[in-house]
Amino acid sequence: MKKTSEEALALQQIITRLDGFKPRQRWWRRWVKRSAVALILRELDDHIEVLMIKRADREGDPWSGHMAFPGGRMDRQDVTGLRTAIRETEEETGIFLDKAGHCIGRLSDIVSRPHSGRQPMVVTPYVFRLHTAVSIEANHEVAEAVWVPLRFLMDRGNRETMTWGRGKLQMNLPCYFYEKRRIWGMSLRMLDELLGLI
């Protein structure tokens, strides 16, 4: 597949810089709840896309209906966060990352709140590059899966702001609207760090 030189350069920069990148790791993460997600990149015709999912609406889920990356909580049988990201991606999308691609690096840990309790949760993002075409078979946790072009995210003209509120607290936060889907919060922080490598 033929790519423009700009897109090819962007992908090569991501791969090269991830190789030497030192992500922030929370030293105390082994003592708290942990999750891992997969940022999956694919080359299509003349551009690069990243896979995002829209979480299914579920009562009691604080991230219900949000745009996110495939992933989830680490189980006891998961030896590493990488295995969590691979397993959860397979469960949620039907993509076997071990066969269809490979991990090209990881990004910095992000601290979040778990679904229940006050203890923080550490989320670790891993970046994958597909080398074969895949079909998506979403499970009940996923309302839809969308491939978002990196060039859309790299264009600062597409950046918008949104108002987020909880109780009396109101904040203006950055976001993107891609085909009426809002990308913000933790997912946007991960994308910003990834794109910052270009």
TrEMBL record:
- Magnesium: present as a keyword of the record? yes
Keyword Calcium included in the entry's annotation:
no
Under which EC number(s) is this enzyme classified? 3.6.1.55
Which keywords accompany this UniProt record? Hydrolase, Magnesium, Manganese, Metal-binding
**Record-annotated Nudix hydrolase domain positions:** 31-173
Q: What would be an example GO MF term here?
A: 8-oxo-7,8-dihydrodeoxyguanosine triphosphate pyrophosphatase activity
Q: Which Gene3D superfamilies match?
A: Nucleoside Triphosphate Pyrophosphohydrolase (3.90.79.10)
Q: Which cofactor does it need?
A: Mg(2+); Mn(2+)
SUPFAM superfamilies recorded for this chain?
Answer: Nudix
**InterPro entries, per database record:** CoAse, NUDIX_hydrolase-like_dom_sf, NUDIX_hydrolase_dom
Q: What is this protein called?
A: CoA pyrophosphatase
Say which species the protein is native to. Answer: Zhongshania guokunii
Q: What is the lineage of its organism?
A: Bacteria, Pseudomonadati, Pseudomonadota, Gammaproteobacteria, Cellvibrionales
